[in-house]
Amino acid sequence: MEFKEAKNKFVQTWGALGSQWGINKTMAQIHALLMVSNEAVSMEDIMEELQISRGNASMNLRALMDWGIVYKEYKAGERREFFTAEKDLDELAVKISRERSKREIKPALKVLKEVSSIEANSTEEEKHFVDQTTKLYDFVLKADNVLDKITEYKDNWLTQLLIKFMK
Amino acid sequence: MEFKEAKNKFVQTWGALGSQWGINKTMAQIHALLMVSNEAVSMEDIMEELQISRGNASMNLRALMDWGIVYKEYKAGERREFFTAEKDLDELAVKISRERSKREIKPALKVLKEVSSIEANSTEEEKHFVDQTTKLYDFVLKADNVLDKITEYKDNWLTQLLIKFMK
DNA sequence: ATAAACTTTCATTTTTTTTTGAAAGTTTAA
DNA sequence: TTAAACTTTCAAAAAAAAATGAAAGTTTAT
C-alpha cells in the first residue's frame, strides 16, 4: 500500500467510525485528515481532499473547534486561515470525555434524578420504576465521577489506569 | 410528576441519548421501556406504548437480542412472546463494552495496523503519517485491553475501579 | 473609505437512515 | 393437516440528517 492510499483508507475508516459514535462523517473525516497532516491545512485544501463544499467544511470545522480538538492557525503574511488538530492522544481523549460528559451525561443525570424522585406509593410497577431509575442514576453518576477522576491525571492516564489494573 | 409522565420522560430521554451514541432512537426506547418494566412485555404492548409499527418493533427487538441485552420469555399457556431487558447494570455495561469492542474497535485496529505499516521512505509528510497512526494504534489497543481487563471483573467493576482510583 | 480575499450562514436540495405495512414465514393446538 | 395466532422480512415511503452554494458578513491592506 502506498501513502496516498493509506491516508485515504485512514480518513474513510475514521469517518465511518465517527458515524457509529454519533459524530457526523465529514466532521470525523476532517479530524482524521488534520490528525495525520504534519502541517496546518487550509480550508481550500480540506475541501479539495474530501471533495466537500465550502459551507460543509466551514460548519464542521467550527464544530470541531467548539469541541476544542481543532485549532485555527495564522501564518505570517497569509490572509487564509489554517487548521490543525490536537495531536496528543491523551489530551484528545480527555477533551472528548469532558465534552461528552457536559453535553450528554450531565443532562441525562438531571432527568434520572427527576424521574426517580416521584412518589411511588401504590403499585409494584411504580416501585420497580423508582428502584431501577435510582440504580441507574447511581451507576451513571459513579461512572461520570470515575471518568472525571481518570482524566484529571491528563498525561498518560491510560497507562496509569493499565498499571493500576495490572496490580 | 406522576408515574406515567415520569416513565414517558425516561423513555424519551433514553431514546435521545441513544441517538447521540449511534444507537437508533426506537431501539433505545424499547430498551428503556423494558428496563423499567417489572414484568415481561409483549410486542403488542411495546407497539402500543411507543406508537410504532410491528415491523419496527420486530427489527429492533431482534437487534437488542443480538446485542445480548434483551431476552425472549415464554409464558405458560401463551402463544405470544414476551421480552425483558437485562436489568443488572454491571452486566449491561459489560455486554455493551464487549459488543462495541468486537464490532467497532477490533476492525478499526486492523485498519490502523495496515495503514501504519506502509513503507515511509521519502517525505516528512509520510513519516508523520506513520508516526501518528502508529501512536493511534498503540493507544486504541491499550484502551481496548483496559476495557477488557475491567469488564473481566464483571460484578461491581465500576466500584472496584472507583476504589482503585481513590487510593 | 473601499475593494479584494476570505469565512459564515441558512434556505434548499440531496443523501442517509428509519419506519411502515402487507406478504411470507413459522409455530402450535386441535 | 390445517387454520389460527403469531413473528419476520423487505420493498417502498417517510423522516431525519447532512451537504450544497450563493448571498451576506468580516477582515485586512492600501
Give a description of the structure.
Two copies of one chain form a homodimer. Chain A has 167 residues and is mainly alpha-helical. Chain A is built from seven helices and three strands; from the N terminus they run ααβααββααα. A three-stranded antiparallel sheet of chain A has the order 1-3-2. In chain A, strand 2 and strand 3 form a beta hairpin. The longest helix of chain A is centred in the C-terminal third of the chain and has 29 residues. The relative contact order of chain A is 0.08. The model of chain A has no long low-confidence stretch (mean pLDDT 91). Chains A and B meet through helix 1, helix 5, helix 6 and helix 7 of A and helix 1, helix 5, helix 6 and helix 7 of B. Chain A binds a DNA duplex (30 and 30 nucleotides) through helix 4. Chains A, B: This is HTH-type transcriptional regulator. Chains A, B: Keywords: DNA-binding, Transcription, Transcription regulation. Chains A, B: It holds the Pfam family MarR_2.
